[in-house]
Write a structure and sequence with these properties.
There is one protein chain. By secondary structure, the chain is mainly α. It has one domain. Helix content is 71%, strand content 0%. The chain is built from two helices and no strands. Helix 1 runs antiparallel to helix 2. It is rod-shaped and about 40 Å long. It starts with a helix and ends in a 12-residue tail after the last helix. The mean pLDDT is 84.
């Protein structure tokens, strides 16, 4: 999710497509939150690890 968010963010920025930039930013933030929650050992969605 982090990689997809970063790719969409960059594509939206360089191609001047604001919806891609917005979706990329949202995916990047959600991915970072899930990664942090999984890293501290808190179960995310019933799983101990989030890939």
């Amino acid at each position: 999710m982090l990689v997809l968010g970063l790719i969409l963010l960059l594509l939206g920025y360089f191609l001047h497509i604001s919806i891609l930039w917005t979706i990329g930013l949202i995916l990047l933030i959600v991915g970072a939150i899930l990664w942090i929650l999984g890293a501290v050992g808190r179960p995310v969605g019933g799983r101990r690890h989030y890939w």
